[in-house]
Design goal:
By secondary structure, the chain is α+β, with helices and mostly antiparallel strands. It has helices spanning about 5-25, 60-75, 110-130, 135, 140-155, 160-170, 175-200, 205-210, 220-240, 240-245, 250, 255, 270, 300, 320-335, 345-350, 360-380, and strands spanning about 80, 85, 90, 95-100, 100-105, 265, 340-345, 385-390, 400, 405-415, 420, 425, 435, 445, 450-460, 465-475, 480-490. It starts with a helix and ends with a strand.
Length: about 500
């Protein structure tokens, strides 16, 4: 039976610990106990509120910088226009997608699907190699929770001890004011975030309309914005880390994506155990030689999901690096090298070597490269205008006069830009001429699909076969923009 690598890691880690303790005739701690519950639910089955210690250190500093960049991108992007188009628009209702100012109409949906597939393979590959780094550094849930909402909470309620004291204190004017201030800020922030988020779907102009016009004119969208804002406020003021622990599907997939070579936030049990307070006296012979972990539990206090990383890699760990920073500070204080909790793999900790390019990683890299080449090719060969010409169903040729016959065609011109421009269509080679039904050619095409019908009229003597392959060219101001293949049906010869 193939054993889950996380389970294998924990078991092995515990066995190593057990062997060391047994060898030293020390009582063995029941470190398996953490499996029986999750940190956010207490013994009575009620929510146990996690109030993590405010993190600080080099990783927290870098994560803060990355978060500010991501937040700036999130709030500024809907305001940026390229050639009159938004930088990013994902209008699922009208099936209109604009990415980096380029319009992807429904006809290009296959490109979006391929791009999404490539993104999924990239995330899998990234997770196999670097574990859950995405969760800790760029996931919107972590960025908003740890870098925005939690920071506001530290600012208003203080650090974890002050928060606990405030929560346990009876209601007073001070507590009421703090709660009112915090939740008012949370609600305003939720409304701002949801308005920005919706701007990615319906465009900033429509969001402005909903916000500024009388409610009755946009009652449905207005109510939707209120509901989304309420849901966002609920998630970040109450549900919080439960999203990562019980709701996020990516988190649930860690068990199958990680292996013993994946780099995760890991506690070095080889170096850290047996844990315990250090004696300043020289070790007496026969007494256990303690590991570097002084069992201060600060790595637990700082964890936003309430776990003890010393129990091994767990699904609740979002790789936020807070415990790494906290433990580094402890190591600095006791004069031991940093990195007792660090980015490393199970193999790296046990054998002291990291192997990144495993067979699995090579296979995923191959698939990802192939997908990237395909998406790049399709994107580069994508034309702004697409012409489709189909002979009208169920029709054959018609006799126009003694010397000419015709065929009837339907055409579609798909303009993938947001501009209008003039076009002309012609038959390639000296084969015949186009006559539009209704008389008028499509002199200017606008964003979207322009449809119409035309006849192709050909001299009898030019039709040599029952079926002749022909090409229709579409140009704008004399410049060829696309070609369409079709056939012309003539009489049996
Ligand atoms: S912070 Fe470091 S030293 Fe303190 S309990 Fe955690 S692992 Fe041990
Ligand atoms: S164990 Fe460490 S890295 Fe994982 S969530 Fe807790 S503090 Fe963050």
């Amino acid at each position: 039976m193939v054993q889950n690598p996380i389970f294998a890691y924990v078991t092995k880690h515990l066995n190593t610990h057990k062997e060391k303790m047994e060898a030293q005739n020390q009582p063995i701690k029941d470190t398996e106990e953490y499996r029986d519950h999750i940190a956010t639910i207490d013994d009575r089955g009620k929510r146990a509120w996690i109030r993590p210690k405010k993190p600080s250190g080099r990783y927290t500093k870098w994560r803060t910088i990355v978060s500010w960049i991501l937040l700036a991108f999130f709030f500024i992007t809907p305001l940026i226009k390229i050639n009159g188009n938004p930088l990013l628009l994902l209008n699922i209702f009208e099936r209109k997608f604009i990415i980096f100012g380029i319009l992807f109409p429904p006809q290009d949906f296959h490109l979006l699907v391929l791009a999404m597939l490539t993104g999924i393979v990239f995330i899998i590959l990234f997770t196999v190699v670097y574990g859950r780094i995405f969760c800790g550094w760029v996931c919107p849930q972590t960025v908003f929770m740890e870098m925005v909402f939690r920071k506001i909470e530290y600012l208003i309620d203080g650090d974890y001890k002050a928060q606990k004291k405030l929560a346990e204190a009876p209601m007073s004017s001070k507590k009421f004011f703090k709660r009112l201030l915090k939740h008012t800020v949370f609600i305003v922030l939720s409304i701002i975030v949801i308005n920005t988020f919706v701007a990615y779907i319906i465009g900033i102009e429509n969001v402005r309309k909903i916000a500024l016009e009388p409610i009755g004119q946009n009652f449905g969208p207005f109510m939707a914005m209120i509901l989304f804002s309420a849901a966002f406020y609920f998630i970040f003021s109450w549900f919080r880390e439960q999203v990562c622990i019980v709701a996020c599907p990516y988190g649930r997939l860690q068990g199958v994506m990680l292996d013993k070579n994946s780099v995760v936030v890991a506690y070095d049990n080889v170096r850290g155990e047996p844990r315990g307070k250090k004696s300043k006296k020289a070790p007496i012979e026969g007494e256990p030689v303690m590991g570097d972990c002084i069992d201060c539990k600060l790595c637990v206090a700082v964890c936003p999901t309430g776990i003890d990383i010393r129990d091994g890699t767990q699904l609740e760990c979002v790789n936020c690096t807070a415990c790494m920073d906290e433990c580094d500070t402890v190591m600095d204080k006791i004069g031991r090298p940093r990195g007792l909790i660090r980015y490393d793999s199970l193999k790296g900790i046990e054998e002291g070597k990291k192997k990144i390019f495993t067979t699995r990683v090579k296979a995923y890299t191959g698939v990802l490269s192939a997908l990237l080449v395909l998406v790049s090719f399709l994107l580069l060969s994508r034309s702004d205008v697409e012409l489709l010409v189909l002979r009208a169903r169920g029709t054959l040729y018609n006799k126009v006069d003694e010397t000419h016959i015709n065929n009837l065609y339907n055409y579609e011109i798909i303009n993938k830009t947001t501009r209008s421009f003039p076009v002309e269509m012609e038959i390639e080679g000296d084969f015949g001429r186009i006559e539009y039904v209704g008389g008028n050619p499509p002199d200017s095409i606008r964003e979207g699909v322009t449809k119409g019908t035309f006849f192709i009229i050909v001299e009898n003597e030019k039709v040599k076969d029952r079926k002749t392959d022909i090409k229709i060219r579409i140009s704008s101001n004399g410049e060829l923009i696309d070609k369409a293949n079709t056939t012309f049906i003539g009489p049996y010869r």
